[in-house]
Amino acid sequence: MLRCPVCRLSLARQGKRYRCVRGHSFDVARSGYVNLPRSGSGRCRGDALAMVRRRRAFLETGHYRPLLEELKRRVPPSHLAQHGLRSLLDVGCGEGYFTAGLAEALAGWEVWGIDISRDAVDVAARRHPEVNFAVAAARDLPILDASVDVAVSTFGPHEPGELRRVLRPGGRLLVASPGARPAGGASENALPRRPAAWPPSGRGSPRRLDPLIISAGEANGTDGTE
What is the pTM of this model? Predict the structure, then answer.
């Protein structure tokens, strides 16, 4: 499923590192993730540790549990298993809340969470050792062509072209994003556009998912939205 960010060939785990046939090697961090940086992406660090911890604390209150359950509902294991589908990629996984929740419901699947923030991925890997995590950019995923059965993006940046590239024919794409804000301004029920800012200062916590848009589609040459 992984590809080398240098030569684009397949990566395989060998002990405590991932290697390609050309000898490019990437060590697995002590916490369990692998760093697969895109050339020239060093300046983009993603969310800092303080933001990651704040978001994790907020998510643990359960406010976004309904969203997780909706994502699970849209990835029905029994239906997908009939078609041999069993790999999931979470792009912009952050601290791994949604990644781990989906992995728990998809026993036996190969699940990867990818984020540009090393702090976020480190927190995710330490908390969810049963899931695979990597530091990488959404605009250049270290994933082989047509190797993913289900791709997920919740509130994070994603490149439609990259998602089309990595999805297998017939694969499923789920994108969760905030809906349009009310004309009169943001309400306390509106979902924040940047999860790192959760909870929005002075607005309380979102209590329902009305403003949420989840687009779902299959890899068939479209952008995967309905």
Answer: 0.79
